[in-house]
Design brief:
By secondary structure, the protein is mainly α. The chain has 29 helices and no strands.
């Protein structure tokens, strides 16, 4: 099975040669504009965001034609041509008319008209590059804003339940809300996309073009390849490294999975199992510091928490997630009697580091500048310069030590320029989908703010759950799964936090930062949860396995995606801090609980786990999540006793393995 072109980040529809040239020029221009704004001359809100959106709309309509895979022809261009010009208008209008817009008491007719055009272009762009589901959701929110006695669609007021009813708004009022202020399309989501997210997507593109992906994969194989299930463990480690800079779980599956999935199958993993492991590991890359896809930047902006603080508190939860995936992979390898790859087929750590040590320098620069307190946008700018400088130094060193010649010098310069331009274009291409998603999320946020829907939704959530926190969290999980079937992770997170965030914090007393992290984590679950598991489907395509079976395997290996957020809620010191002994205690029982859960799920740890032990262990895991020190301690003690019993059983089990092998041989 293959992904539709509109949903597959690797898909590049065939286009006539001049169109490709135009896409390249526009993409490079967008990246240069973003670099200028990030490192040379910061721009104001109503300059940066509209210009960014204009560029992105133009790119979107050039990359994704109305005719799909078929050539546009004159009919296609008669539609796409005006849309491209509309994108230019969007990028020009607000910056060119900012003084008139700011001084107008009532919105001018021409501003309203451009606002309507902007909204329609965002809806159509989202349909092309993301999918119809998110476009339908945005359209429903717009209709909801009109559905009131004083709105454009007063007849719909009678269809609204009492709690959802509102006064209704006119076209002028809604267009002003969405495009003439900082509460709609040009709000926080697009603002984050136009600054922090883009610059780090561009950083990832520079790493990809210069060969960082191969370096991370080779390093993972060199360190884990000889262990049981080595390629699967390498997939976990490589996906943790690549996923945090790729910005897309699906792109991560396609990138690292092309190497890891065939090797896992060769080692003995079933095809669906190999695809599921890669999907689970790639999804975890989105919660892995320092970049966390787009999540850390949005959480920082919404909660007014410094970006470096978001990164620091996310390290341990990410460690728990990948530790759980790694453990499940190891258990599966031991149960199936798998072995690692022979040393002769693996790269050596020393050789990998000697060849690619320069890829570590930009990451060191990035972390160092974050610790010093630089803004994320400026950090991304300097990190890109560090990538370029390290790649240039590596090239110059190779040129100097390999016998320098004039022809070689010219070739080196040409290669450097070509790689730079390729990275600038790739960064712009990769940012299109996330920027469009953030722009459309701005429509939803604007309508929610205008109609007060967020408070109403929180009231409904409180009524449905009856004030029970577990039921409320179950509703959040269900909502995140449903939204994730049609929305990218970033958009799903924004919609969820706007709608249910007030209820989690004000009605149930969950700290603001914890609420945002929980919603962000659960927004990832559509990548690995059937029936629509996008990362699982991508893994199935590479593994040549049934998509649904692969998705079930991904769901199983990604269980930490559900448990770790629960731990954040019921054991919040690991996020909000507290006395050092309490933080250490919570960290210890989190590790114990996830290890025990893996044993319950697989029926195996160091040795097979009997049914009665699995039942007792499941109860102990629940106790560890209980908001009581005494109950937590009892659960942790029970898990510790189980570990000891399983360790003792493992000696007897290991001793019987040769006999079992001989029996199978007979």
């Amino acid at each position: 099975m293959t992904l539709p072109p509109s949903r597959d980040p690797e898909a590049k529809p065939v286009k006539p040669f001049p169109v490709l040239r135009v896409i390249t020029v526009v993409g490079i221009a967008l990246s240069l504009f973003q670099l200028y704004a990030a490192g040379i001359q910061p721009l104001g809100l109503f300059y940066q965001r509209p210009i960014h959106l204009g560029f992105v709309l133009v790119l979107c309509f050039l990359i994704y034609p109305i005719t799909g895979e078929r050539p546009r022809g004159w009919i296609g261009w008669s539609i796409d041509g005006p849309l491209v010009l509309g994108g230019v208008l969007v990028g020009y209008w607000v910056p060119a008319n900012i003084d008139a817009i700011a001084n107008a008491i009532f919105p001018r007719t021409q501003d309203v008209a451009v606002g309507v055009i902007t909204t329609l272009l965002v809806l159509e762009a989202s349909r092309r590059c993301i999918g119809a589901a998110i476009t339908v959701i945005g359209t429903v929110f717009i209709i909801y804003a009109f559905a009131g006695n004083r709105g454009e669609l007063p007849f719909l007021a009678d269809w609204m339940p009492g709690i959802l009813n509102h006064r209704g708004y006119t076209l002028d009022r809604l267009a002003s809300q969405l495009t003439l202020g900082a509460e709609g399309i040009y709000g926080i989501p697009l603002g984050v996309a136009a600054t922090f997210i883009f610059i780090f997507v561009l950083f990832g593109a520079f790493l990809e073009v210069t060969g960082a992906g191969k370096f991370f994969i080779d390093l993972a194989y060199a360190t884990t390849g000889r262990q049981r299930g080595g390629p699967a463990k390498a997939a976990v480690i490589a996906s943790a490294g690549m996923g945090s800079i790729s910005g897309s779980a699906i792109a991560n599956v396609v990138t690292t999975g092309a190497f890891t999935i065939p090797l896992m199958k060769r080692l003995g993993y079933r095809p669906a199992q190999a695809g599921g492991i890669e999907a689970a590991a790639s999804t975890g890359g989105q919660i892995m510091p320092p970049l966390m896809g787009a999540g850390a930047f949005l959480i920082s902006e919404f909660t007014r928490t410094p970006y470096i603080d978001i990164v620091m508190i996310s390290i341990f939860p990410a460690f728990l997630y990948f530790g759980a995936v790694y453990l499940l992979v190891h258990i599966a390898a031991v149960k199936q009697g798998l072995v690692g790859l022979p040393a002769s087929e693996l790269p050596k750590v020393r050789d990998v580091l000697l060849e690619g040590w320069h890829f570590l320098l930009p990451l060191i620069v990035l972390i160092w500048l974050l610790v010093l307190g630089y803004s994320p946008m400026r950090v991304g700018y300097y990190a890109i310069l560090a990538v370029m400088a390290s790649a240039a130094l590596k090239g110059i060193w190779g040129y100097a030590t390999g016998g320098p010649t004039l022809e070689g010098g010219i070739a080196l310069v040409r290669t450097g320029i070509a790689k730079t331009l390729e990275a600038l274009e790739l960064g712009a291409r990769n940012a299109v989908a996330v920027s469009i998603a953030c722009a459309l999320a701005g429509i939803i946020v604007g309508v929610v703010g205008l109609t007060g829907l967020g408070l109403k939704f929180s009231s409904m959530m409180l009524a449905f759950s009856g004030g029970n926190l577990l039921l409320a969290l179950l509703l959040v999980v269900i909502a995140s799964l449903i939204l994730g079937m049609g929305l990218p992770v970033t958009a799903a997170y924004i919609v969820l936090i706007v709608l249910i965030g007030p209820a989690l914090t004000e009605q149930f007393g969950i700290p603001l930062l914890v609420a945002h992290l929980v919603v962000f984590w659960w927004s990832q679950d559509s990548n690995v949860t059937p029936p629509v598991a996008l990362a699982g489907f991508a893994g199935a395509a590479i593994a040549n396995a049934p998509p649904m079976e692969t998705s079930v395997q991904a769901w199983k290996y990604a269980k930490g995606l559900y448990l770790v957020p629960l731990f954040m809620i019921f054991n919040e010191p690991i996020i909000v801090g507290g006395p050092i002994p309490l933080v250490l205690w919570n960290g210890l029982i989190a590790i114990l609980a996830l290890t025990a859960f893996a044993a319950v799920l697989e029926g195996f740890l160091l040795a097979p786990v009997p049914i009665w032990q699995r039942i007792v262990l499941a109860v102990a895991v629940v106790c560890v999540f209980w908001p009581s020190i005494a109950v937590e301690a009892a659960g942790a003690a029970a898990i510790a006793v189980f570990f000891w019993m399983n360790h003792v059983a493992s000696r007897k089990w290991a001793g019987s393995m040769p006999e079992q092998a001989a029996e199978r041989g007979r």
